[in-house]
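Sequence in, structure out.
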Amino acid sequence: MKTSLDCIPCLARHALSAARMATDDEQVHERVLREAIGALSQIDMAASPPVMAQQIHRLVRQVMGVDDPYQSVKQRFTQLALELSGPLRERIAASDDPLGTALRIALAGNAIDFGVYADVSEADLQRTLDRALKVPLEAEIATFRQALLGVSDVLFLADNTGEIVFDRLLIEQLPCPQVTVAVRGAPVINDATREDAETAGLTDRYEVIDNGSDGPGTILTDCSAAFVRRFEQASLIIAKGQGNYETLSDVAGNIVFLFMAKCTVITSRLGCPIDTFQVHWTGQGSREEGA
């Protein structure tokens, strides 16, 4: 999808938020923001929002000389998610619908997004979990279950650190013999990298690959050739997060998107309320036609 004019102030906020994550020096904040505004004046509106965000966050890291401004919040939410995972796994096991319950929890985990939100608290995450476990999502769960029918292998595109701990609970319920988890190739915002996947325990049980890119989404033209081959060969791609939706919603393939609709650009495109849980399956039409 293309970048909207409404994305521009959001991307400027990205830059300022990242600078504030790394230092309290207001002079540095101002320098980063001025540099970002200059870059934003030259952006290609035909590119997707994560392409623009990738450029802005590269600029921020270069100006500040910091490889990962979000490292501390990533560690904090990984620890919180790990503490919650035990009781949540028990809840899934006791559920009449373990797959549906795990899907609800994974969708709630998408709230850990410092790209859209200036800040996320532990209380925010708990409220989102509580809501996800209560709201009617029967149609979304049915769509997800349908997408999994007859699938032999899944490429699971992870999104954020902390969130991937909840994703593991969902992956454990997938009725597929082979699941590969893909993370970012380098730090960007609070997106998950291989190190984060290791901390979440994913590498103990699943193959984890990286996409070779530091984009906050899956920008196929920026990903490694090895990742693109895996992407093209997968029976089903499960894409977590709004950034993956923004970069892949116009890409042909059997893809099911799982995310929270967190901004007006997305809600206008989908015709849904803000902060609702979304399950969109792009392969549904082709499967029905071939049925």
